[in-house]
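#struct-help
A.M.: can someone run this one for me? Single chain, 982 residues.
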Amino acid sequence: MNLKKFLKNVSLLFLFSVICLSWLTAFPPSSEATQPDTGLASVELRVSAVSGLAVEKIGLADSRLLTLSSPLPLFSFLLENKPVTSALSRPAGGETSIILTGGRIDDKKLEFKINEAIKGTLTGKLFSYPGLAISLRFENISKEKIKLENLVPLGEGQDRVYITAGLPDSWPHYLSRTLLYRPGKTPVGVLLPDNAWHLGFCDLEISPGLYLTGLARRTGRDRAEFSRWAATIEPGGSVSYDLYFDLHQAPSLPAGLASDLLAPPEPWFQGLKIMFQERYLYDLDKFDKTLFERSDLQWIRKTYLMLLQFAWDHTYYDWAEQKNNFYQNLSAWDKLVGKIDIYSIWPTWPRLGLDERNQFDLYRDLPGGLAELKKQVAYAHQNGKKYFIAYNPWDEGTRHEEHLQAIENLLREIQADGVVLDTRGESSREFQAMADRVKPGIIMYSEGMAVPKNMPGIVSGRVHDALYLPPAVNLNKFIKPDFAIFRVIQPGEARFRREASVAFFNGYGTEINTMRPARPETMEEDLKHLGRTLKILRENSSAFLSQEWIPLYPSFQDGISVNCWPEARKIIFTIFSLRPEGYKGPLIPVKEKPGFHAVSLWRHEEVEAEKINNRFYLPVDIEAFSRQLLETRMEGNPECLAILPELIEARRIEDRIIIKLSEKPAGGHLVLTAGNPGYETQPVSLPAAETEFSLREKFGRNGDKLVIQLFDSQNELLDERVLSLPPALPRLVSEIKRTEPASRPPAQMAEIPAGEYLFKTTPDPDDPNPIIPYPDRPAAQTIKIRRFFIDRYPVTNAQYAEFLKKTGYRPADSTNFLKHWINGQPPKGQENHPVVWVSLEDAEAYASWAGKRLPAEAEWQYAAQGLDGRLYPWGNDFDPARCNNKQGQTQPVTAHPAGASPFGAEDLVGNVWQLTSDVYDNGAYNFVIMKGGSYYSPETSIWYPKSGPLPVNRQQMLLLLSPGLDRCATVGFRCVKDASQP
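D.P.: on it. Structure tokens below:
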């Protein structure tokens, strides 16, 4: 080379370097007002004998240049089941480095060899999205067939997140092998679109806070065979891939409630979102949302259960009885699964083709013909359900009838709502236009799941039952969250508890397909489990349609997957655990926010966040399952937590429930359930308003909890509160029956003024955990007391004798009735003693005759205590001179005037126990509350009830069985009378 030519080449090289450096030179840090553009502009690749084929430098969209600390392999794959990385590549002649720039392409290419078996060619690729794309072609230069699979951009590694096939290519995973790998965690199965099972994905941090994400798609072949994951290449054959790359920072949370309450997603989530949700796996340059924006087609999004039946199913039409069972069958499911949202009839395959009749003839020949089908559709509509027909596009060999026109005629004749597209994974503009000519809102429903490029033409599809154990995370749902998906369940094939749980975990519905004839005994159990999931899905559909849902939200425990569904006013977490031992403890990282609370919608229990290392976690309680159930359709258990606004304020005072609402939605309603809500329970529905009621009156003795739910007019859950009902909770079963009011105190009665009273009671302080619980009420509660009158003294023997004389009262059971009387008369000298040996019924009979009633416990205690909360009628200090202090017998009721209460009632403590009107039922026993203590106080054993003069806030139950047993020598009563109110 002469000097002149050499200098010319040097000048050209210098000029080229200047041009390159003009965009490779990093700019200084930007100001706070201008955030740097971290999008990917270019990559510099080099193939060498040292590092193989690797990424060395990355150019950012804002012209900064990042030199990697060590070369990054461009890809990895399996070659004949052995791992291979591009670091094993060697130059194959020509260029040894290349700079690829997004949005621009030239003729440069990079060639390399791997293991003397593969020759690779790399070029740039133009495409419509940001970032850049690379085309790879692998040629088999050996003399044998080779199998290439699991190509992962940027390669597999323990320091990165990547997606590739990882499960065995055998039953039950042979159709669902793909796993998402995360550093330090157990891989999680993911379901990919049907045209992308071979897909490879990777996301890793290349600089603090900066992440490179990549996607690999298989694109072409020459003299090669494709299976779902592998390419088998003949000698001289080839297979091609496109690799897509971009940069991103850690993801941010959507503004609003999610930002206030959630922990940030893991950084790889942003890469997944770019590749799957924003760029549709590069299947489409642009997603046409026309069908998804049509309001008439959106109803399918909020349906979660379809029933698809053969026409010869007994529950549709019984051949032996020649009886139509459709109508009763349609509602037979309601108690287990709520309702069938969509009913689909299938009268064609496998009978189609036995004669020349085509599929549409078979509809016409069903019992009752099209007129009967039209009647069935109308019945479905009347009951809030939809009705689908089925279409077999392969039916070309029977009697000719133009398919599109025949479907239109059938839809128009019977007014069906949708078409099941057999053997199809997509629809077409022609099909939807045909349906639209019939009426608005007709849905095309494909047998398979539409791949991204076909999603704009159809709004619903299914997870086929050929996928025996589909992975836990369905990324098809992530690609288009408002695409309506149904998991196909065949009850006749196997148990389906897991499949219901996985569909629920992913926020979509279920198709019960009864084509296989078996109906196992376990079907009802599995349907109940399905119904439990469906109820949550239906009541929270706004969240399950969220465009912001976060698959695999951060979890405190490995082996337990969490999906997060943020919505404007609530956040739902669906959880799926594959830990056979179960788990109870903190799981979901959250932030605290006043005005919101957490509840388990699966167990219907309030949940309190736990603080660990200055972070808050919502705890879960997930059931265990047998390890033998792993890799069966019985593995795993679900859970569901919700963060809801505090709209309901609910409290229980003994048997009374008091509900207040901070928001009363128009057309909304409250739903109250004793125990866990479910389709088999009988809840109480009330208008969305403040209310107060008796548990016993609404629910009897049912339930260990009361679940209170607030719904809007669309049956969307707004809030849920759970009140625990302690075991053996005593429920007040008595009611105050008001007397004729008096304006002035009757003779021998004291006036008790109206007032707000701080009511505190206590059972025996020496027995804090009695075998039979006392009424469970707050430690103190302020109650409003109406003005009333109370007897100054307990009812005496003389007064009761007068009652008997004037009424002739005789109890039906006279056992022990007035046992201490002699010849039907009070003992001489005890006329003014309190009457005893009377039952609750005997006391009520006297009170009714006198125009009075027994006092409620709160009334008795208020009359005895006044407003200052004193322990005894006379004050806080016990004074034996003011009462019958364990004298061993009754005394005259007037014996201790100094023991009077502030309102003038006397003989309240120490003489005899005094009955109140408060009768309780704890589900096993009835008892009535007594007050005051009595003269009899055995003290030779700790097992005797405490007695003698007792503080007025002390309670003592009298267990009720029969009047004869209930009558005691130590129990009397006094009466009250209602007063006219000022």
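A.M.: thanks! The chain has four domains: 55-249, 303-539, 648-663+676-725, 749-978.
D.P.: also worth noting: Confidence is low (pLDDT under 50) at residues 1-35.
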